[in-house]
Design brief:
There is one protein chain. By secondary structure, the chain is an all-alpha fold. It has one domain. It contains 9 helices and no strands. It has helices spanning 2-15, 25-44, 51-54, 62-80, 87-96, 102-133, 135-148, 153-173, 177-199. The model has no long low-confidence stretch (mean pLDDT 87).
Length: 200
């Protein structure tokens, strides 16, 4: 965890001067999640072949993956009924409706973001916590940290139930795949829904 934090901080410090006011949001997000991915790789690289199972990248079977994906969609629909619309998420969804940006937004928000977030929170952080205090604590704490990392209070409220589901899937299956697939499904569904609303 210390290596991850150190590498992420160094990369962020290097990249910040290149961020200009008014820069495309997707470019900033791609850079942010790119830094996260590089930091994860740097942190687990010394483990060699043991890195993948340590991150939870192991088979899980199709049932928890399907359950997780359907449960995630149900939760997303339920929390959307609260009428909460975080400003950051609203801005990203509006940009994704622009001509020519749908595929880019799908790749960044629907694929890159959930993969990196799962590697960080349910991969590295969960594994570090589980090795010290057990899977239940790891699931709960990693879910809370995941929600808090979204910073905007409205966004925290929306993603906390999803984070708890993802943490539970990681704990019960011992695999990162169900939560990762569920997270990808959730984000991709949100991008697609934004496009359809824009078309209407």
């Amino acid at each position: 965890m210390l290596v991850f934090l150190a590498v992420a901080a160094l990369l962020a410090a290097f990249c910040v001067p290149f961020v200009k006011p008014g820069q495309n949001l997707f470019a900033v997000l791609a850079g942010f999640f790119g830094i996260g991915l590089l930091a994860v790789v740097a942190a687990v690289a010394p483990m060699g072949r043991a890195a993948l199972p340590a991150l939870g990248l192991r088979p899980a079977g199709w049932r928890p993956i399907v359950f997780g994906a359907l449960g995630t969609l149900a939760l997303s629909v339920a929390v959307s009924q609260l009428g909460i619309e975080p400003k950051g998420m609203k801005q990203a969804m509006e940009i994704s409706r622009e001509p020519g940006l749908f595929l880019i937004s799908l790749l960044i928000m629907g694929l890159l973001a959930p993969v990196v977030e799962e590697l960080m929170f349910r991969g590295m952080l969960f594994g570090w916590l589980a090795g010290r205090w057990g899977g239940g604590v790891a699931a709960g704490v990693s879910s809370l940290v995941f929600a808090a990392a979204h910073l905007e209070p409205a966004h925290v409220v929306l993603v906390l139930p999803l984070g708890l589901l993802f943490g539970w899937l990681r704990w019960r299956t011992g695999s990162l795949l169900p939560s990762m697939v569920s997270h990808i499904v959730n984000n991709s569904f949100a991008v697609l829904a934004a496009l359809l609303v824009g078309v209407d």
